[in-house]
Amino acid sequence: MAATSWEVWDLSGQKLKYLPQDLLAPVTLYTSVDLQRNKLKRVTGISKNTNITELNLSRNKIIEFSQEICNLKNLQTLYMNHNNVRSIPEGIFPHLRNLKFLKLSTNRLARLPSDINQCTSLTYLDLSKNCLQNIEPLVGLPKLRELLVEKNQLTELPSQLFQKGSCELTKFKAMCNPLRCPPEEVCAGGVMDIQSYFLQMKENPNAHTTWTVKAMFLGSSMAGKSTLCHSLREGKPVAVAMKDRTEGIDITRLYTHEIRFLLWDFAGQEEYYLTHHIFITPRALVILTVNLASYSTVDPESFKDQIWFWLNNIQLRVPNAVVMLVGTHCDQCRDLEEVMEKKKDIDEKINIMLVNRKMVLKYQKKNLEENTDPFLYMDQVDEIDSLLEYSLKVLDLLTLDCTKTQDIVRFRSHILKCIQSESAFLCSETILPQSYEEVEQAIQKLVTLEQIPQHGIILLEELCDLIMNHVTQSKEHLHSILQFLLRYLHRIGVIIWYEDIDVLRDHVFIQPSFLISMFKTIVRHDLVQQLERISRDLLMQEGALMKQRFIWVEDLRCRGTLHNAALRILVRRELEKLVIDDDDLVREVVGNKKEEGIILTLLQHFEVCLPTLVRSPMNPQAPDFIPGENHWESVRESKRDPDGACLFPIYLKDDLIVCQKWGENKQDDLRVHVYVLPEVPHGFFHR
Ligand SMILES: Nc1nc2c(ncn2[C@@H]2O[C@H](COP(=O)(O)OP(=O)(O)OP(=O)(O)O)[C@@H](O)[C@H]2O)c(=O)[nH]1
């Protein structure tokens, strides 16, 4: 084992179980020792080498954080991630006065030593993927700039950590913790959002505790999702007519047992799947609905379409989701025996599916680890490891006849029971400063008093002025905190505010359902028919001819492209149906030949469609591209044409026609080889 240079000694991936003797010699010159990817359980003897400034012990089997490390007085960088460290003794960190970088992610730490804040040079600390319940000991680290505590068991954060003046933090990540104070949706905004939250808590200690549950109704078309959703809200059976089928997503609310339910009803037709992924979020109760009358125990496709497909998709978005299975249409089954037989079949097949998935993942992991160069696949192995850590929790199938009141009552109490038992995961108990509640209520009041237009699109400035009349805050104060409050309301799904999209930063969407209904005009199962139905008058408004309408239909059917002019007509028609007579707003939403409207911007932002580009002219002076050479200028950004067309991959359905129009695959087509995990989300390659 020879050192690669007198400064760096690379001992990575050597299957070492003990530290090599050369390293333990009292005088060595090595300042950087790389021992990652070995089988070390202990690092006994390391303190003999006090020259070490950088030590990489990641991906070993270390259980104890060795007391000896305190003798490494020159240590500046320490990697100890991906081990099994359970605790860190007191009395180590006060000696590590030069330690700047410490990575302890993916271990089993349940608590931190109380003297960690005496590690005064520390600027970077990664404690993600541990079991920490408290990070109070970190208060007082004077130079800490980056702190990562994702995927722990934290419920509260210490306010002193974020105190303005003493806090140097620029990056803080705490996603996937059961946080209530501040709630995760506040933390997601970053250090400034958390600071504003704690400041408001201090200024007004009358904090509110609220419970919110987001329930998402998923399942195939005609399974009974809308029926369940409406009936749950009303507390009695509500019949849903065919014409009222869900298009896109419907959002409603229900207040019961001091819990606020946000009910998201997703459409079941395939055309909408492509937009669903935007809205499927963690920490939600997924209600997967199955039509038991049409379910067949003998046809494998039945399980695949009605259950497997959905569970697979949910798993990809939220690998540890809690899924409540509901079987509807029991009254249309032959008898109770048939219902029970189907229930048994579904429960068994799901069980097999979940077990199989774990097996496939383990097999994949083994394959990667046995590869000649496992180093190349380290990230994939990590990814598989984190997938293996989680498992979807699928509750036993509840069988219902949605036309019966007692079954709807049973459904409601089943949900409440499930929330009680899974509360840590499903129900976000949040502690909020009074201002958050006040602003949310003020917005609701403005809607009720019809001071906000029905479509709910409002300029940020205008909204601020209107809210002013309903809250106790001064105008200056409200101005200073409003962005944090709106960001929070956006994250919990009460409003939509895309502050990251330049052209939309000044607009707030108070009614998310309006925006979704705009999406629905374009992403829908019957878009071809919608185009065919465009009248001559509407065409004339857009300066188009009948002939163009035929081209639009043909292009959509064969090439999956929708002309922007057609899109403008459809969106404008929908706005007219909603009786929106604000010309400026219509122009902004619809756009024109020179400027794309809000809807097109959003559809592109979420990658539902891809714009056709105006190619920049060729540049004869452009230098040749030589791989490995840095002095190569990329082509200038191609421009979008607001009067062009967009490709909607979801409408590329008929392979035969697509091949005829776009051409067969050719040898010189670009080929990309990628390693993909065993699961690929539906529509991934379309997108
Ligand atoms: N007899 C009977 N009819 C039901 C039951 N549940 C739902 N239905 C009916 O089934 C039809 C479809 O129900 P919906 O709630 O619209 O189904 P969906 O899953 O929302 O369908 P999409 O909107 O297409 O995704 C409606 O006519 C309902 O009245 C049930 O348990 N028994």
TrEMBL record:
UniProt domain Roc: residue ranges: 206-422
MF (Gene Ontology): nucleotide binding
Any matching Pfam family: LRR_14
GO annotation, biological process: brain development; chordate embryonic development; endocrine pancreas development; regulation of signal transduction
Statement: the UniProt record of this protein carries the keyword Acetylation: no
UniProt-listed PROSITE patterns: LRR, ROC
One term under GO cellular component: cytoplasm
SUPFAM superfamilies given in the database record: L domain-like (SSF52058), P-loop containing nucleoside triphosphate hydrolases (SSF52540)
Entry annotated with the keyword Kinase: no
InterPro entries, alphabetized: Leu-rich_rpt, Leu-rich_rpt_typical-subtyp, LRR_dom_sf, LRR_domain-containing, LRR_R13L4/SHOC2-like, P-loop_NTPase, ROC, WH-like_DNA-bd_sf
Keywords for this protein: Leucine-rich repeat, Nucleotide-binding, Repeat
Entries under PANTHER family matching the protein: MALIGNANT FIBROUS HISTIOCYTOMA-AMPLIFIED SEQUENCE 1 HOMOLOG, PTHR48051
Name listed for the protein in its UniProt record: Si:ch211-210p4.6
Annotated source species: Haplochromis burtoni (Burton's mouthbrooder)
